[in-house]
Design a protein that fits this description.
By secondary structure, this protein is mainly alpha-helical. It has two domains: 61 residues, Winged helix-like DNA-binding domain superfamily/Winged helix DNA-binding domain (Arc Repressor Mutant, subunit A), CATH 1.10.10; 35 residues. The chain contains six helices and two strands, in the order H-H-H-E-E-H-H-H.
């Protein structure tokens, strides 16, 4: 059975998940302490972790009186899901339309252009 696609994460949820992806396991207090500014209240982080647990993005285990949270979804998987949703919602399921839009909005650096050219060359070689 294929893995279940992760649900979309809000910006605030991504902030919390970034801490869990880095630490791999953390209590609510650990997450609160590790969050970059602006700070979030303990109860806010607790609520967000509960929502993330309902979304099946994190799990928790008891450790004495505290709960330790663990990511169930990796950052790459969450990013792929988010990009897929954007492509589906705004670009008629065309990833190339998204790529063109991104390059139209801001000129890629020379390093990015070189990477894009290398990828195009690879695709052309693979198609031959």
């Amino acid at each position: 059975m294929p893995a279940k696609k992760p649900k979309m994460l809000t910006k605030a949820e991504v902030r919390v998940m970034n801490v869990l992806w880095e630490k791999r396991r953390a209590t609510v207090a650990d997450v609160v302490a590790a969050l970059p500014p602006p700070p979030l209240a303990y109860t806010t982080v607790l609520t967000m972790l509960r929502v993330l647990e309902q979304k099946a993005v994190v799990s928790r285990t008891a450790d004495g009186r505290a709960h330790v949270y663990h990511p169930l979804v990796e950052q790459d998987e969450a990013a792929t899901s988010a990009v897929s949703e954007i492509v589906r919602s705004f670009f008629s399921n065309s990833r190339s339309a998204l790529a063109v839009r991104l390059m139209e909005e801001e000129r890629p650096s020379q390093q990015e252009l070189d990477s894009i050219k290398a990828l195009i060359a690879k695709y052309e070689r693979d198609a031959s």
